[in-house]
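To make this tangible, this section ends with a sequence with its structure tokens:
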Amino acid sequence: MLRTAIRNARPERPLRIPKIPTCLSAKHASRPPGARRSAVTQAAPTIPASADDRALITLFDQPKGGPSSSSWSHTGLFGHPSLTHPRALISLTNATLLRAQKLTDRILRARESRDELLKVVKNLDRLSDLLCGVIDLSELVRNAHPDRVWVDAANHAYEALCEFMNVLNTHVGLYEVLNAVLSDKDIMDTIGPEAIQTALIFWRDFEKSAIDLPPEHRERFVALSTEILVLGREFQRGVVTPRPPVSIKPEELSGLKDQGMGVRLKLQARFTNRDLLVYPGSLQAQMIMRAAPDEEPRRKLYVATNSSTSEQVEILETMLKKRAELSQLVGSKSFAHLTLDDKMAKSPENVNHFLNALMDHTAPAVKGALRSLSIRKQEHLNTPPFPIIQAWDRDFYCPPEPPAPPISLPPLTLGTVFMALSRLFRHLYGISLRPVHAVSGEVWHTDVQKLEVVDETQGVIGWIYADLFARKGKPGGAAHYTVRCSRRTDDDDDTGDHLEEVLDLQNIQESIEFEAVKRHRLPRQEGVYQLPLVVLLCEFARPTLTKGATVLQWHEVNTLFHEMGHAMHSMIGRTEYQNVAGTRCATDFVELPSILMEHFLNSPTVLSLFNPDSTSSSARSPNHHIDPCHAIDTYQQILLAALDQIYHSPTVLDPNFDSTLEYAKLQNTRGMIPYVAGTSFQTQFGHLFGYGATYYSYLLDRAIASRVWGNVFSKDPLSRQLGERYKDEILRYGGGRDPWKMVSAILSSPELESGDAHAMRIVGHWRIEDEVGLPGRH
């Protein structure tokens, strides 16, 4: 029922989906009688755009090395004055637990008063936000903070609050109160559509937690949930466990096309006069797959890379069976049925309609690409016509090429890219990025830079903390952390929490002060709001005195645009209820704004914004690069999405279920490249744990984003009118409106509004454009 903020991360190939941990969210502070009233801050006015542009370049390309260190200016993490040391996070956790219990007690008494019943949804949202305000901050700290003491404190806070949250998620009393609200027509007619959507989210999450089952069944549900979590962690460890090395004979490296590492490997083999041991996944292995004319070393490496131990297969299959058992315990036909009930897809049958249509639509391009590779193989090996392309042939006959922009561009420094992003947002939404000095103690590392997100009429509407450079101990990849969601706070009625009944008011003071920092009044908008705060984590090379500013490769530019798509969704999706704010929406909808952002990089008009001396478009010669094998990679991703559905269907409860046989059957019946005997790739399909039954999501959002780009933005990508329309139809709702209604509105396609099997088939027949022609990024 209670959800934590969404961390949107770019996963490894073959799919970039957000890594989305789910928790309860409620971000607000209650104020007992006599307590100091929370300050309501007025957002700062905007400053000239040209000054912001230059300031962004200076901030990221000539960093000064940390926040302001003025002796009279000091605060705690994210501007919370109390969070100056790890012990304060423990104190805040304890205070939050006390306040959460008082708010829970209030909700449980709600049926004593009609006025309180009217406030149940709001108070559940507050409760969710209260807990996740600390949980989400702790999630960021335990992943990004370089100080082990802070990390330990964050782990403690995260675990203690999640444990309390799990109790709430199976609390029969809370469920009964919510049911009383949902069954009261007068209340439902009064509270409004966004509140109803929030209430339904709570209710569905309760239902999925076996809340209405007998106690012994609920105990079994909890036990199964714990077992699945443990098995999932074991499965994930197996995914990243290195595979044993492969023995490559020196003669098998004859004719290597690579003139760098290939030459060194051949010299090593010649001087040692013994076989080389090459680890699957290593740089040497990747080079051999691209450059070895002899297919035997490529075949051996492919088999080794995609092999598993019997224990790894057993862990996966046990996890799948436990999921199926848990689903049937709560009355669902399968784990896919349980999971998809509140997604855009609604059911596994609809997912399969989409995937089948997508396969049929993509198959001709795949056959054409494979025919071209077969001709290359025939010419290379002098074989009879059209030899079969095997799995180990793809990279050799169609080697991945470095992604490149569609037009020639000067070196893209980090500051230049942020300037272009700010200019793009200003064109589309009247929103810009403004650097601001972080106060001493506000950030966790000197690399972190703070940006205000400034609306031209409302002033500051949120903040982005950019932690962009690689360092030891920092997670790899890129991710968008929602540390604070937006929500309306002036109608909280926190006096009804009766915090004055707490024996020692000082015990909850830290929580009260923590919440007080978040409240802001925006010009031209009714009410007081908690404004969003997000963190971007990336691993770019840091600038140096000798080499100068960080110059991003093209795929890194795309990474930044992708993550900033999530950030803008968080900023603009400012709802009254934090459970539906910004990126708190369906898993199979959340990637739409971020993927769409990448499409803007296809436009020479948009790319002209990278020129610091120009704010208008200029014609540039196109430099289009299309990966001829892109269709093969997309098709393979569709197959994996289909495999995910099979693994989460009732099939897994068959005593004879064999995950390897199911994979082989799918590859040989629907695939275009034959299954390789002896392989079991499924144990490296890490998304089976975090995205069980929802792997199709990125494909669905890619199809929709391609359509939105082509039908709405492609001809006039800097149009303020179109940007405002997209903001009003999609971004501002967060998860507070049915995604199909949003998609049908922006595309003027009423036939999609029902989101049924027909709608999924329609989307499946849309062309999936590669956002920027990047090979192997999906």
User: Anything to note?
Assistant: Residues 161 and 167 are 10 Å apart (CA to CA). The chain has 28 helices and twelve strands. Confidence is low (pLDDT under 50) at residues 9-49, 771-778.
